[in-house]
Amino acid sequence: MRIISYIILLIIILLGVSFAMLNSEVVSLNYFIGHRTIHLSMLLVSVFAIGCILGILIVGSLAIKIKMQNYQLRKQLKISEKELENLRALPLQNSQ
Q: Distance from CA of residue 89 to its chain's centroid?
C-alpha cells in the first residue's frame, strides 16, 4: 500500500512539473494596492491553494456547528430518556 501511495505522489509531482513547464508565461497580476508580474503556473497554483484553504475553513466551520448541535441533541435525548425511565418506574394509581 505504501508503494502505491509513493507512485501516486510521484505522478502528482510529475504532473505538477509538466504543468509548470507548459504554463511558463509571465502574466501581470493587478490587484487593489498594486500590480506584480508572476508566472501563470504559479498564479494558478496559488489561486487553487487559496480556494482549497477557504473551502476547508468553510466546511470545517459547518462541521463544528453540526457537532455542537449533535451534542445538544444527545444531551436532550439523555434527559428525555431519564425522564421516561422515571415515569415508567412510578406506580400506577387506580382511578375509582
A: 46
pLDDT on residue 70: 97
| Backbone phi and psi for residue 84, each to the nearest 5 degrees, phi listed first | -65, -40
Task: Please count the residues of the chain.
Answer: 96
User: Other CB atoms closer than 10 Å to residue 27's CB: what's the count?
Assistant: 15
Read off the pTM.
Answer: 0.62
Residue type, 90: L
Q: Given a cut of 80, is residue 96 above it in pLDDT? A: no
The answer to whether the beta carbons of residues 15 and 3 sit under 8 Å apart is no
pLDDT at residue 80 is higher than 90: yes
Task: Name the E strands within 12-51.
Answer: 26-30, 35-39
Cell matching residue 25: 508565461
Pairwise CA distance, residues 78 & 66, whole Å? 18
- Delimit the domains of the chain by residue range: 21-86
